[in-house]
Amino acid sequence: MKTEGTAEGIERFTSPGKGRGLRALKHYKVGDLLFTCPAYTYVLTVSERGNHCEFCFARKEGLSKCGKCKQAFYCNVDCQRGDWPMHKLECSSMCIFKENWDPSETVRLTARIIAKQKTQTEKTAAEKLLTVSEFESHLEKLDNEKRELIQSDIAALHHFYSKHLEYPDNAALLVLFAQVNCNGFTIEDEELSHLGSAVFPDVALMNHSCCPNVIVTYKGTLAEVRAVQEINAGDEIFTSYIDLLYPTDDRNDRLKDSYFFNCDCKECATKGKDKAKMETRKMNEPPQPETIRDMVKYARNVIEEFRRAKHYKTPSELLEICELSLDKMDAVFEDTNVYMLHMMYQAMGVCLYMQDWEGALRYGEKIIKPYSKHYPPYSLNVASMWLKLGRLYIGLEKKSLGVKALKKAIAIMEVAHGKDHHYIAEIKKELEDH
Fold this sequence. Notes:
The protein has helices at about 75-95, 105-120, 145-160, 170-185, 200-205, 250-260, 265-270, 275, 290-310, 315-330, 340-355, 355-375, 380-395, 400-415, 420-434, and strands at about 5, 10-15, 20-25, 35-40, 40-45, 65, 75, 185-190, 195-200, 205-210, 215-220, 220-225, 240. Helix content is about 50%, strand content about 15%. The radius of gyration is 22 Å and the shape is globular. Helix 10 (about 315-330) packs antiparallel against helix 11 and helix 13 (about 380-395) packs antiparallel against helix 14. Strands 1-2-3 form a three-stranded antiparallel sheet, with no helix packed on it. The protein is α+β, with helices and mostly antiparallel strands. It has 15 helices and 13 strands. About 35% of the residues are buried.
């Protein structure tokens, strides 16, 4: 096991059977901060413009807009100046294309990487252990569909960014987009709402496990990595690349599709949680294996159908998809089954969007207990669900239930985000106000 570079308390090494990895050089207890990593580059998602500063991602009212494009918002002149090297890639383009300006977030992030690589010749503070140029692309494993998607991203890059970017050739762009697809991160807020996309090279060095011993959270555009299990000197540091709600076969299908490997962690070897995650109805005659297989296939298809439908169907149509699929699955699956929970979570999201607070609360109350059982300790999915429930209870004047739920969210977030995180200060203020 060869060592290849160190930072304080951690080192890059060659992990048997996995390639590069990250290893602890000392003991960390639950909640300890292992390391932080500033974003190499990042982009705020379009739907959050006006709510967050484009440069520091601060969430506040009264942000000032860019005088030229009127689309980007900032805390102050310092943030606007700080963002200009990246914002100038888009500013005039947005003015020209107006409502037809719609590059994907991946295209926007990749444009910024290209611009940064032109001006930044030294290693950045985000690349102490791994450089962007070292990212895995898995190019040889891409099927035709994935290659075609990248080619359409390359076309969009040329279409929207021709004025301010010098492009590498098509082959180099193919590699770069494949690298971003495998190594990019999504930045989320305390309720796991999407804020933007970023590249954190040193964080990307960590290998995956379905029993992760660390969790990644964000403070603005800074990634923070904290222990969620005891870690001893010499232990490999593992994060999770995917949502851990699902059973083993489903998780590995997701890993294979996005990252081109199967997981060999303890949870995948034992399938220890699969029985509880795949709970079926208690009936005189238990459902046949074939019936369960067919329902799982249906569930996975409807999850994909819903994901696509979010782009073009109305909220009431989306809610109908959720309700119909829940009715159908209910014939075989218990409410605690993860596929039922997935569609309940989607239904809750639609209810929140439609401001149907009681409907959202009904779904949330069904979700929280099985979530707490299926997810690992200190899960952000569980914390964000307690947080949503707490805010719903308080909004519906169920104060004591709201306070209890918010305190449960804080208990998880103090480990995952650190006790000094501004999200925790904001939630504590909500408690004081009520």
